[in-house]
Amino acid sequence: MSEQPTSSMAGTEWHDIVDFVERSTYRIWNEREVDLITRTYTPQTITHMDSGDMVGVEHVVEDTERALAGREGFRGRIDETIWTGNDRDGYRTSMRWTWTARNAGDPVFGGPTGRWIRVSATANCAVKGENYVEEWKAWNPGARAAQLGIGLDAAARMWGSTSTGKRQPEGRPAAEFGVRVPAIPARVHGSGELVQDHLTALFGRGDAERVFAAYSNDARLSVGTSRTYQHLAGIKNYVDDWLRLMPEREFRIDELYWLEDFNLDRVAVRWNLAGTVPTPRGEREVSVMGINHVHVHGDKIVAEFAEFDELSLHRQITGM
């Protein structure tokens, strides 16, 4: 953005907002300092996921402890953090990371296999002070299941049987914590406008030919850790797959911000795609949340990293 945000986190132990997001993540996961969650999440923090929302710091602690218990040699690496905001209005951050671990007993998908798995995720957070006050997490449990030798149908049944039915506290949106930095700036321009226009044309209007104007010839689009689409033809195949799956659809951008650099602009975009999927048992109404990091050089997208919950989508389509 032409007027770059400020990142000081004044009066805290953190050097700036990127240090807060990245170092707190490393401490919680790589160093297993789970107690730090009680300092950085609140009792009303909502974590939004396609598989269902999670509310409150206690649920985050429980979920993290359960995940780490089944993963030996866990090591996460943060790939990128895109952010906007300031100390007064709060921050919005989008952190993309990848972790590897040996399966010592998956909390959902069964007992220890000893297999190494590699999973990526992107978390968009609203931050006020030293607290994550609202979070949107995009990742694909289906990719984790596949690496454990479990297909989507079996994974969908196993995922559906893990609900605890535990009562959750009432959550509060970021605005009630005093976050005033907008999810989408009042004026969208530059690389933010380019990405907004291209994604809306591709998935909103269904103009798959827009790929040839939007992306560079050697662009790469990665979907989690499960697959990568190379060059223009591959990326068009990815778009065509979505359009065939969901002929009737509505595409919406819910969050958009970007950082400008001399050589490469980096854009974070959280989106929702909702529509109707034809199946042998009739039409199914589905909704997918995704988060993409998009790298722009000049007027072309040169790389894109997309995250969405393929397992949740499969469960919606099949009714599992």
UniProtKB/TrEMBL annotation:
Pfam families: SnoaL, SnoaL_2. One of its GO terms (biological process) is polyketide metabolic process. It comes from the Bacteria. Residues 197-303 form the SnoaL-like domain. This is SnoaL-like domain-containing protein.
